[in-house]
Amino acid sequence: MLLKSVMDKHNVVPGVIDTVPKNIIKVHYPSGVDVNVGNELTPLSVKDEPTVQWPTEKGVYYTLVMTDPDAGARAEIKHWLVVNIPANDLSAGETLAEYRGSAPPAAGAPHRYIFLVYKQPSGRLNHSETPLAPNSREGRGYFKVREFANKYNLGEPYAGNLYLAKGDEYSAQIRVQLGLPK
């Protein structure tokens, strides 16, 4: 399976999660690019919230997470978190962290941006999370998707995908806006 080999190659398993999801999340950006299991994308091409789709089951709610485990001391960075999603209808879910695109530093290796979907085992998720303010850096760092999934008994990821991104001129501009080093 392609997803397994790419997640193994990029140390997603066991570095970030314990098992490879059985399904792939289709991720399409308004810029026209798609996440294709480990392809490299530019920060500019992934700046806007994508559409996402995964195989669904009737009556099941899902949690979607996008995380960057390569952000140094603050890793993982929570780039997107939506819970209580019926089927693939993100607009009907509860957004806890609005989408934030990639902005890795210019120096260093590409960062891994990982999309994961979890089936919520008992319907709607009752959580104690505080939704993050739009455009806020606060609450995004020091996230651990594995710990989040354990805290809410989400089990292993149901679907996944990932892309790589290197820092560039656009990400340097975003980092300055966020008060981060280029």
TrEMBL record:
UniProt cross-references to SUPFAM superfamilies, sorted A to Z: PEBP-like
Record's protein name: Phosphatidylethanolamine-binding protein
Regions crossing the membrane: none
Organism: Medioppia subpectinata
One Pfam family linked to the record: PBP
